Amino acid sequence: MNFDAYARTGVDLVNTRLDDLDDLQVLFPDENAWMRDEVTERDLAILRRAQKRLRDVFEYGTSGRDAEAVAELNTLLEAFPVQPRISGHDSSDWHMHVTSRGASVSSEYLAGAVWGLSVWLCEYGSARFGVCADERCGNVYLDTSSNCCRRFCSERCATRSHVAAHRARKRAAVGDQLPVPAQSEPLAPVS
Fold first, then answer.
1. How far apart, in whole angstroms, are the C-alpha atoms of residue 140 and residue 62?
2. What pTM does this model have?
């Protein structure tokens, strides 16, 4: 099982807009096309609730609240248990599924996502769970940097944030150098 790939499905869920069933299409790549065909409104509601809870896990990790991140993941593991099984059609197609046959789309998706994030936390620690430092973004990410120093979900957000900070510093510097206008004497009334 590729735990990193499962963990990334958790990131994808948190960062995906979930207004309607059409929004779920980005969560189900071609290898999971069956999920697109079988997803229901009930799955959407379950995925929305889980999305908020998984965001909490990232916020707990970012703020150093390890015990709360672990407690939330344990609760989610109970709600969406992993029940591995081998699936496929012949010896060239065997692969693992994380839930029992007949599980709902949301159960299958969330069992993998929660399992992947749980393994990630045990392997790397909750400090590797990040929330983008760009105030306009808010996406979550898994910090894969060598020294746990990542602050942004993408290069795009990092660049946008750094450019905005640079421009703000330049405006402040120019503002400090502008002469202070002299106060003028009030005009005397015309008679």
1. 10
2. 0.81
